[in-house]
Amino acid sequence: MPAPPRRARRRLLLVHSHPDDETITTGGTIARYAADPDTSVTLVTCTLGERGEVMVPELAGLTADQADQLGGYRIGELAGAAAALRLTDRRFLGGAGRWRDSGMVTLEGVLAAAPPAEQLHPRAFCADNQRAAQIAALAEILAEVAPQVVVGYDPSGGYGHPDHVRAHEITMAAAAAAPGVRKVYWTVAPTADVSAGLDELAGAAEHGLPWRLASPNELPCVPDDMVTTRVDVAPQLDAKIAALRAHATQLTVWVGPPGSGKLAYALTNEIAQPVLRTESYTLVGAAGSVRPVRETDLFDGIED
Fold first, then answer.
1. Are 168 and 154 within 8 A, CB to CB?
2. Residue 150's closest CA among 131, 177, 110, 126?
3. Residue-wise burial string across 68-83, b where 16 or more C-beta atoms lie within 10 A, e elsewhere
4. Using an 8 Å Cβ cutoff, are 132 and 111 in contact?
5. What is the pTM of this model?
6. pLDDT per residue over 94-119, tens digit each?
7. Which of the 8 DSSP states describes residue 114?
8. Measured between alpha carbons, how far is 182 from 93 in angstroms, rounded to an integer?
9. Which residue of 88, 242, 248, 281 lies most exposed, with the fewest beta carbons within 10 A?
10. What is the CATH code for 10-189+279-284?
């Protein structure tokens, strides 16, 4: 009988709500650690993103209010993004389609809130009666993978989407009960970085930027002192851009003239956001308390 494959010394697991979330907020981080032969990276995606809008007019018939085939299509987009990031271990929580994208109510800019309860699908990811089963499903994956580091969302889910909020809840609960988890991070966008990214895009309309530029209050940001860990992903930027482009139904990437350094993406709302060259995190304790450190590596302090 062949010997089982050797377990990587360092193990990272990320929990994301929909296909494309993994690339937008953590794509560079995934690419950085996936390239390390002694680090395994596992992505858990909680839904298929069935309630998303569609950026490509000829694919508009896939949406939930028409053929309702968008979720299946986005499985393929996620596979393309994973290939660009060199990510090989990706899983759907509870199996593909077990929980359904809950949808959202759009607020200012890209901010969101939960739809009325009566509008939720019976299998909606954010449904109250699904929480315990979701925690159990994630706990099963954690027990198998045994990651030392887990990445999820902050309590607001980044921008308020109810599926992101639920992903935060189950990540914190499952990680707290997993004895091998040494560090839990929230993926965050610091105000200073977002503001600097928007400043870099100033005047981009003159270079062909096809969307209006977001204002700072339209984008989800946290105070700079909430950031404990900053991962330089400039060397992984090409991989991240390729992964973003794989999610073509959901977003479009714009690259400015050579040498300009201008780089943006837009979701279906056509509001331009900067693609940052640093991905930032908050290291937290089991109860969500911020741990006062300053790091550049998610595995700082982990020796086994």
1. yes
2. 177
3. eebbebbbebbebbbe
4. no
5. 0.95
6. 999 999 999 888 877 667 777 888 78
7. P
8. 22
9. 88
10. 3.40.50.10320
